[in-house]
Amino acid sequence: MSTKLSPPWLRLPGGARHDITGTCTLGRVPDNPLPIADTEVSRRHAIIQPQGDLECWLVDLGSANGTFLNGRRISQPMPLHHGDLIRLGTHELAFSPRPPGTPAPPPASSSASQALPSNLSQCWLMVAEVIGYSQLAQSLPAPELSHQIGTWLKNSRQIIEECGGHTSRYLPEGFFCHWENSDDSTIQLRQAVSLMYEAQRAASPPFRFVLHFGPVEIGTVPLLDEPRLHGAEIDFVLAMSKIAAAQQQSILFSEAAVTHLSAASEVRLVCESPVPGFTRPAKFYTPGD
Questions:
Q1: Quick one: 125 and 258 in the same domain?
Q2: Residues 71 and 138 occupy one common structural domain
Q3: Quick one: average pLDDT of 65-85?
C-alpha cells in the first residue's frame, strides 16, 4: 500500500498549519513566505531550508533578538526534528516532518527518495565554512556569536544567489552551493569568487571556501521546490574543505575548477593530496601571490 506524501510543516500559534514546500524565510515583512507580525522579529529573521529527503535545517540570519530552538539561541545552522519548538520574538512554532498521527517511516525506505527523478549535469560546487568555530563559540557571548554567524550566512547567500548560484545545503559550520554549467556560469563563478574573496578580507567571522567542477545527479524531492544533488563529486568537494583546513588555506580550487575557469596562470599549486573515497591523489590550488 502506498503512503500519501506530505510536506514538512509548522504548527503556528493558534493551531494553524504552514506547509514547507521550499526555502521558507521567516520575518516581519509581509513578503516572507511566513510573515510574523512581531516587533521583536527582524525583517528577514531566519530561514527553514529543506534539503535531502524532506530534511529541514533552521538558520538564523543575524537577527537582532535571535532564533531559539527548544529554548536555546542558535548560533549555527541546526537540523530540525519532529516536535522541535522554534521561537522568534514572542511567537513559538512547532516543527513536524510528517502529518499528525503518521508514524516515522523507516530511514532506508524513504518514499521521497524512491520517487526522486534525476539527471546528470556538469556543475560548479562550492563549500564555505567558518574557520575556528569552536574557538569562537568559547570566546564570544552567545548573542554576538549568533549575530556574526547569521550575518555571514545571510550575506554569503546573497552573493551566491546574485551570481546565479543556489544554496543547496546548510552544514553545521557553513553551507554548500552549486551552479549548473552554462554559457554564463564561468563569468558568474569568477564574480562569485571575487566577491567571496572580498568578504573574506572584511569578514567577522573568518571563513574558507573551496571550489570544484564535476558531474552531479540532480533531482527534485517530491513536494519540495528544491533541487537534490548527489554523487561522488559532492563527497569530493566536502573533503576539499577538510584538506583546505589541514593546509591552512582560505581558498582552494580543484584541478577541474582551475581548468574550466581557464585560470592556470592565476593560481599556484598548494599540494597533491589523497582524497578519502577516491583512488588517486588530487592536485589543489590557491590564487597566486
A1: yes
A2: no
A3: 97
pLDDT digits (tens, 9 = 90+) for 231-256: 999 999 999 999 999 999 999 999 99
In this structure, are 21 and 163 located in the same domain?
A: no
Q: Is the separation of the CB atoms in 63 and 150 below 8 Å?
A: yes
Residue length of the chain: 289
Per-residue pLDDT tens digits for 262-288? 999 999 999 999 999 999 999 999 998
Kindly state whether residues 45 and 166 are assigned to the same domain. no
Q: Are 88 and 67 in contact (CB under 8 A)?
A: yes
Same domain, 226 and 281: yes
Question: For residue 248, what is its C-alpha cell?
Answer: 591552512
Domain boundary among 62, 96, 130: 96
Q: What angle do CA 70, 7, 4 make, to 5 degrees?
A: 130
CB 213 within 8 A of CB 125: yes
Residue range(s) defining the domain that contains residue 34: 9-96
State pTM to two decimals.
0.91
Written as nine digits, the cell of 144 is 554576538
